[in-house]
User: Which sequence fits this backbone?
């Protein structure tokens, strides 16, 4: 007898720990696909989020690149979930990616060609707007804010008890862990799966509204190799503001020290006046002007940590997004990967070919783990590139420039559709590898 469609989730109590991109995409996908496929009774899906509301942390306001290339497919996920049109309303200017040295003279520009079935190949959107677009597609009773999960306990029969900070608890048939890189649930259930520090720290900030924005930023985001081992990333946040980060090699302990400095108004101002100019020294305008325009209170420190995907085989518990395969900011792909995880996990749970949750979980991991590893490896290449110095940086820049000329020639010969983003990225990775700039600092 054929298994009934949706038999693995019919009437099940499903908890999602974490209400960011991956958790929301999973909850929305499972509900939407279950309804479309006539699953009855529908699963009970509850998302537990520690933030007080969707607006919490929105003031930090950083933006994300959501892309359609085969290594990302975030736009395809949004389209499948019915949320793409809402996101397009918040698409910010500057869609291309530029690689340059310290001078805003592009060595390589990656814009992407047309993607069948999609209006654009990529968008830039604030984290707050992307999150809200996903929330708007959900039924309000599915999301619970101010609900922090502090522990998870496996019970006989494959269920899991979640304990909350407010003293309450609940038992669930299936738990999807999407609580980010510093996952409490991962620490509780898999204490050996710890983040790996890549050896780099970034100081990030945002500008107040600027009129007008520098024209370089309207062309797209910039990944830059500084003259003294400092890497820079610059992009628009919205129609009037820019975000940036300045990164450098440092001991792991420096990240916590920096964050403490930036949390104190007095030491924050001292860092802004004395240390930040040293980091930006050697970069040409408009980056120094963006730094000078920054409100010191907007600065924060980020340690570039990551975690390769691990065996995702706990009974009744599955990890997705950064909780499973944490990506440093240098991957530039965390939101795409998390949303794709959410959709693909929902698809596997509804696949009638799977006899058990364990089978569905294994199939999901086989789909998601390879692309996640590739994205993390790409971030290591980017780390090596932007922090290269001396002759190594010159060689890197030369090879990237040659790659750009090859792309120009192919586009000229074959037309604008002759080379997609994926092909451009393969050539770009080859240039990085050829330069020897991909050595990882740990």
Assistant:
């Amino acid at each position: 007898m054929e298994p009934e469609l949706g038999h693995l989730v019919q009437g099940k109590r499903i908890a999602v720990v974490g209400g960011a991109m991956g958790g929301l995409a999973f909850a929305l996908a499972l509900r939407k696909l279950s309804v479309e496929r006539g699953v009855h009774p529908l699963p009970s899906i509850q998302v537990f989020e520690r933030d007080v509301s969707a607006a919490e942390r929105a003031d930090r306001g950083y933006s994300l690149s959501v892309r359609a290339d085969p290594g990302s497919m975030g736009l395809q996920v949004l389209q499948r979930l019915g949320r793409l049109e809402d996101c397009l309303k918040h698409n910010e200017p500057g869609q291309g990616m530029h690689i340059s040295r310290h001078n805003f003279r592009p060595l390589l520009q990656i814009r992407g060609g047309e993607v069948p079935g999609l209006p654009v190949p990529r968008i830039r959107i604030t984290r707050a707007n992307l999150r809200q677009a996903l929330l708007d597609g959900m039924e309000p009773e599915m999301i619970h804010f101010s609900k922090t999960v502090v522990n998870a306990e496996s019970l006989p029969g494959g269920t899991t008890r979640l304990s909350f900070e407010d003293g309450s608890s609940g038992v669930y048939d299936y738990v999807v862990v999407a609580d980010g890189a510093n996952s409490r649930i991962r620490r509780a259930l898999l204490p050996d799966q710890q983040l790996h520090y890549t050896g780099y720290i970034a100081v990030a900030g945002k500008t107040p509204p600027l009129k007008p924005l520098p024209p370089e930023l309207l062309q797209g985001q910039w990944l830059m190799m500084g003259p003294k081992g400092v890497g820079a990333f610059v992009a628009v946040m919205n129609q009037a503001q820019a975000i940036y980060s300045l990164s450098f090699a440092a001991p792991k302990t420096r990240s916590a020290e920096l964050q403490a400095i930036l949390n104190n108004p007095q030491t924050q101002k001292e860092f802004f006046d004395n240390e930040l100019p040293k980091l930006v020294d050697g970069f040409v305008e408009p980056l120094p002007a963006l730094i000078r325009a920054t409100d010191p209170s907007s600065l924060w420190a980020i340690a570039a940590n990551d975690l390769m995907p691990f065996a995702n085989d706990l009974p009744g518990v599955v990890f997705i997004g950064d909780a499973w395969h944490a990506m440093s900011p240098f991957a530039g792909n965390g939101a795409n990967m998390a949303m794709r995880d959410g959709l693909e996990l929902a698809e596997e749970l509804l696949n009638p070919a799977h006899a058990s949750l364990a089978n569905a979980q294994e199939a999901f991991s086989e789909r998601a783990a390879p692309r996640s590893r590739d994205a993390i490896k790409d971030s290591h290449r980017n780390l090596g590139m932007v922090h290269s110095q001396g002759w190594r940086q010159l060689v890197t820049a030369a090879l990237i420039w040659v790659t750009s000329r090859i792309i120009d020639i192919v586009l000229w010969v074959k037309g604008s559709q002759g080379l997609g983003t994926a092909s451009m990225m393969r050539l770009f990775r080859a240039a990085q590898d050829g330069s020897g700039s991909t050595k990882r600092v740990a």
